Amino acid sequence: MIKNRLKAERKEKKLSQEQIAELLFMDQSQYNRREKGLIKISTEEWKKMAKILNVKVEDIFESDDTLFSINTNDREKGKSKNGIKIKIIIPPSDLNELYKKLEELLIILKNKI
């Protein structure tokens, strides 16, 4: 999930990704992957970024997506079977809507039984 609040604050302060990365002792590409949400930002990094941007951590912090992982690989007598791995990434903001739709579907299915 793109860290829009972090990106907006950085741009408001007229700082480039390269400038922030240098202050964090990392390459611009490493910082870019964090801002894009491709790499998790550690608590310590959030604190450092907030200090660099002269804001509170809560002003720029955005949590990572909720990740659901389903692994159908079963083990039988010590042997693994080929299976399917499914990962579904859902932003927390979409979870309530998803729960409501699932509840509606469950009601429909129960009525058909």
Automatic annotation (TrEMBL):
Gene3D superfamilies: lambda repressor-like DNA-binding domains
Domain HTH cro/C1-type: 6-60
Assigned keywords, A-Z: DNA-binding
Domain of life: Bacteria
Alphabetized SUPFAM superfamilies for the sequence: lambda repressor-like DNA-binding domains
DNA-binding among keywords: yes
InterPro entries in alphabetical order: Cro/C1-type_HTH (IPR001387), Lambda_DNA-bd_dom_sf (IPR010982)
Record-level Gene Ontology MF annotations: DNA binding
Name of the molecule in the record: XRE family transcriptional regulator
Source organism of this protein record: Flavobacterium circumlabens
